[in-house]
Amino acid sequence: MAVRLARAKDIPTLVRFFEALHREQQPYDARAQPVPGAAKLFERELQEGLQGPYRALWLALEAEEPVGFLHGLLVRRPPVWGEALMGFIQELYVEPAHRRRGHGRALVEAFCAWARTRGAHQVELNTLYRNPHSRAFWEALGGEPFLVTYTLPLK
Fold this sequence. Notes:
Blueprint: E1 2-5, H1 11-25, H2 38-47, E2 55-62, E3 65-76, E4 85-94, H3 103-117, E5 123-125, H4 132-140
Parallel strand pairs: 4-5
Antiparallel strand pairs: 1-2, 2-3, 3-4
């Protein structure tokens, strides 16, 4: 098992993982459906730059083959929360056949180390409330619920 920063040649794999992540979320909550063409938008975003001062993407590898990815950002907290720099995990995905082997944890640890060296003091993320496996994963890593997002449909 290994983790490395993604490279341009990895973009097709990253897009495949992005699509798989969103397909897997559908049974938990239909509202998690991305806009039509989201994979193309993600691919275009990646082609503009995989790594930068405020963004990085990692791949988890098993026998040198990609089995998962993490897309992480650095963002400033709103002024009412002190404007501190924090890490934000945009996406995390590990292929089902490779789960429970430490790949997700390794990806998160790599991102946290990267964010820490850039001055971040914490990492935040969103996960589907109705996905108990995701919530259990984050809680096993020491994550704690902080804010709850409610949606109000406008009719």
